[in-house]
Amino acid sequence: MRRAHPMVLESLVEQYGALRALYAESGAAEARRQIEDLTHTLCASTGARDIDAALTAARRQLARARSESDFALVG
What we know:
Elements: H1 6-26, H2 29-46, H3 51-74
């Protein structure tokens, strides 16, 4: 399975969180549409079927990428 680059994945997760906050605050239809688009993208990027699983997988991948880069700096 293809994986999104960690920087892209991190940006998607951050955008999703920001849009959820905006939607909770304003209820704007445009924010809802963007959340739906990001949900689809995150699910496709992580191979998950729902947003909760996608966010969990994305965070796991980001943590692994960070630990691998930390190891590369030390090793």
